[in-house]
Amino acid sequence: MRTQVAIIGGGPSGLLLSQLLHKAGIESVVLERQTREYVLGRIRAGVLETGFVNLMREAGVSKRMDAEGFIHDGTLIAYDNEQFRIDFAEHTGDHVVVYGQTEVTRDLYDARDAMGGTVIHGVSDVELNDLTSDKPYVTYTLNGQSQRLDCDFVAGCDGFHGPSRQAIPLDVRREYEKVYPFGWLGVLSETPPVDDELIYSNSDRGFALCSMRNANLSRYYVQCSLSDSPDDWSDQAFWDELKRRIPEEAADKLITGPSIEKSIAPLRSFVTEPMRYGALFLCGDAAHIVPPTGAKGLNTAASDIHYLYNGLKQHYQDKDSNGLDIYSQKALSRIWKAERFSWWMTNLLHRFPDQSEFDVKMQRADLEFLRDNDAAQKVLAENYVGLPF
Ligand code: RFL
Ligand code: PHB
């Protein structure tokens, strides 16, 4: 089989890229290891920047998101029993949209089906070959048969554990990583959200986040130990702990119910450089990870897709390779800023096992400065709604 762009990974990055390329008349084939049901069962991001929303619109996949997504003009930050609001609209004139990654992915799959896009599920043994030649190709196994996909370019959209990043030789690849000494225990429940806006809470028992998917679907998180397993946490234990970590006013009105999903995510900051190697371009979690505190993971994937899509369009339509040549540099420049913001938010809001009393005082001073200072709030708001592409 032959295509112009072989896309490894059918998560949001891979599907969005393939949809945009299709609209520009560029062929692609998406190779996905899992079934569609499995991909749609993963509960992940919930907050979309305007840059992401605009890409979905450009890809012609925004109808449901535009109708059902919640516009959030601000967010609440709590510590101890106090809370204050960061007003995105006032500080940036912009907002974020709360619409689940599961729904984004479902809409992208539906659009790919409607356009007759090729998404092959259940592939294994994916290998990227001859990336520095002008005839790169991907091999894989499907239903026990070896397959070969010839292409002009490979987009590595296969997440943190996929094979694409590993195809860049170690003497070329440089990786930067910070692993945090805790995780997030997340619960999804069919209950109305506790507030109209998200609540990020720093408490002396650890971080908590109140988020949502729609008017009757809430998503909550508490910071937990890395040695915990979701089975260690009964629903009752989770709700009790969440209530202890958010302001009393919110705890009193929290409506609890059975969890319909419960999982633990480790927190990590990670960047690989460069993001291009010959015909291979890394996108999204394949190249970088942020801790979820700044809601940036899916949104950094969007800027990669924007740069790569425009670079490929320039290559095929104008025979100009400049966009592809500067891809890695442009993508990384924005990513490092999102890394900084996510790392800062994580440090501001979590309890660290080795935190001294002095460190706790510094965190408190940082929170009070943010509460009282307009410029500090503007910095947070600008980063949260998303830096320009
Ligand atoms: P994905 O979603 O991991 O998709 C990669 C796809 O590649 C497939 N794959 C392979 N396919 C073929 N062959 C192989 N060998 C393969 N190996 C893997 C996988 O099956 C998968 O389908 O990466 P992508 O597309 O780059 O998307 C990235 C986002 O998923 C991620 O950044 C966000 O979910 C991060 N994130 C958040 N981001 C936000 O922007 N806002 C948020 O509010 C937000 N909240 C979160 C989050 C991530 C979380 N977790 C669980 C990590 C909250 C949480 C709890
Ligand atoms: C979510 O709704 O899952 C969510 C929201 C904001 C974050 C992280 C996760 O910062």
Task: Please describe what this structure looks like.
The protein has 389 residues and is of the alpha+beta class. It folds into two domains: 5-72 and 95-177 and 268-345, FAD/NAD(P)-binding domain; 180-266 and 352-385, D-Amino Acid Oxidase, Chain A, domain 2 (2-Layer Sandwich), CATH 3.30.9. Helix content is 38%, strand content 30%. It contains 13 helices and 20 strands. An eight-stranded mixed beta sheet has the order 6-5-14-15-16-13-17-20. Helix 9 (297-318) packs antiparallel against helix 11. The structure holds 8-demethyl-8-dimethylamino-flavin-adenine-dinucleotide (RFL) and P-hydroxybenzoic acid. Residues 8-14, 31-34, 39, 44-47, 101, 123, 126, 157-159, 161-163, 184, 186, 265, 284-285, 292, 295-299, 301 line the site of 8-demethyl-8-dimethylamino-flavin-adenine-dinucleotide.
